Amino acid sequence: MDYQKIYKDKLVTAETAAMAVKDGDWVDYGWTAATPVAIDKALAKRMPSLTGVHLRGGILMWVPEIFKIDNPAEHFEWNSWHMGGIERKAAAQGFAYYAPIRYSELPRYYRDSATPGDVAYFQVAPMDEHGYFNFGPSASHMTAVCETTKTVVVEVNQNMPRCLGGMEHCIHISQVDMIVEGDNPDIAELSSGGPATEVDETVAKLIVNEIPDGACLQLGIGGMPNAVGSLIAESDLKDLGVHTEMYVDAFVDISNAGKITGARKNIDRFRQTYAFAAGTKKLYDFLDNNPECMSASVSYTNDIRQISALDNFISINNTVDIDLFGQVNAESAGTRNISGAGGQLDFVLGAYLSNGGKSFICCSSTFTSKDGVTHSRIRPTLAEGSIVTDTRANIHYFVTEYGLVNLKGLSTWQKCEAIISVAHPDFRDELIKSAEKMNIWRRSNKK
Q: Which residue of 43, 178, 273, 392 could cross-link 18, Cys pair, CB 3.0 to 4.6 Å?
């Protein structure tokens, strides 16, 4: 089959591709680094003439041009599977909304949805000799999107890393309706949040001490998981494996330090498995054509059954705050949405089901608000409207700079006492008083 001829027949301009959208359509943008660029610019020019357009995407790494038109809410709304700072600002402006779902469920949602997509736009790596376009570092749920969307349009980027996999990491030209050759921008980089703080490093040391040789790792994004990664790279640990939702820069450092072999993984042996990747150029260069790294659907990476099949699974994630009942909020500040459910609960549950597995929820004990006031991240109860990401029945280890506690199976008074024991000392008396009022304080730990 002459794939080059088919390619030329399907090649169109970004402006032609943008014409596929009609009033009331459901339009999918690619995930993270796969968000379209040239097509987005063309659609932004058309959008003022459209109404009722429903857009879906998530973890935007730059502000799309469609966000910059006058009165965007009059023409479309953005439905985010996982929000970041760009989308939070759009939400405050009244045209972006979070779509609550466990990230692992996205592929099934698309395949079973009563509202299939009309158009999908996303960046891909150049077509290979077999007629396949690689999804780059954003396999995630893209195969399901393509299977259920009426018009599939790829935007080719020569700089997109080719991320190998074996399952749902590419699309064949026969499944593509239009091809746009984009402007070949550099792949957007995502900072790990700056250098680790003293608190980050203290928490990291507590967690690394709990990691055995041969463990399989999942790291979230942020200062603390990044600090854990740095310490692991400097440690004596060996034969580590990777099975994670998000592939971050820390994994590259651990790999380059020779700590990751995957030799003890029960499944996908010797492979570093992930659903999507976002980080610096160092990360994209490492993933490009690397057979050790396995790009896969999020329905696989975040499947509790796959996670639990891996011995000594170690899951490390951040949280916004936690209450004295052990309820974890990693998604909002009261009613203000910050991110999303993601895969945190999947990994919390899967790690505990793993033979020797452990999940760690970590945070600094305090934060300082814009007015300069210091607040405890450990609260008597979550703020009104806060989202419970992990229920009190699911949490395993909780860590702050003041210690690490295992909360699994504890009575309410035991759990409360353990959580307060790792709170900032300045807030402990106040928390004890609140616990007494809620009848979950059995005895005072004050001498």
A: 43
**DSSP classification of residue 409:** T
Plot region of 257 (φ>0 → left; ψ -120 to 50 → alpha; else → beta): alpha
For 188, counting Cβ atoms within 10 Å of its Cβ (0-12 exposed, 13-18 middle, 19+ buried), the class is: middle
pLDDT at residue number 362: 95
Report the catalytic residues: 245
Instruction: Enumerate domains of the chain plus CATH numbers.
Output: 3-181 (3.40.1080.10), 198-437 (3.40.1080.20)
Does pLDDT of 390 surpass 70?
A: yes
Compute the average pLDDT of residues 123-135.
Answer: 98
Angle at alpha carbon of residue 245, lines to 345 and 248, rounded to 5°: 125
Please answer whether residues 386 and 329 qualify as being in contact, where contact means their C-beta atoms are separated by less than 8 angstroms.
yes
b (16+ CB within 10 A) / e for 226-256:
bbbbbbbbebebeebbbbbbbbbbbbbbbbe
The C-alpha atoms of residue 284 and residue 189 are separated, in whole angstroms, by 9
pLDDT attached to residue 447? 41
- Tokens for 437, please give them: 């009022």
- pLDDT single digits (tens) 309-362: 999 999 999 999 999 999 999 999 999 988 989 999 999 999 999 999 999 999
For residue 93, count other CB atoms closer than 10 A to its CB: 12
Residue type for position 182: G
Q: Which helix (H) or strand (E) holds 285?
A: helix 281-287
DSSP letter (8 states) at residue 73: G
The least confident of 260-274, 278-292, 332-346, 404-418 is: 332-346
pLDDT band at residue 193 under the 50/70/90 scheme: low
Instruction: State the Cα–Cα distance between residues 366 and 383, nearest whole angstrom.
Output: 15
Provide the pLDDT for residue 445: 52
CB-based contact 384:441 (threshold 8 Å): no
pLDDT single digits (tens) 213-242: 999 999 987 777 888 888 899 999 999 999
DSSP string covering 36-70 = -SHHHHHHHHHGGG--SEEEEE---SS--GGGGSS
What is the distance between the alpha carbons of residues 98 and 81, in angstroms, rounded to a whole number? 6
- Mean local confidence (pLDDT), 160-187: 96
Please give the full DSSP string across 229-260, using - where no structure is assigned. HHHHHHSS--SBEEEEEEE-HHHHHHHHTT-B
Q: What tokens were used for 414?
A: 């035991």
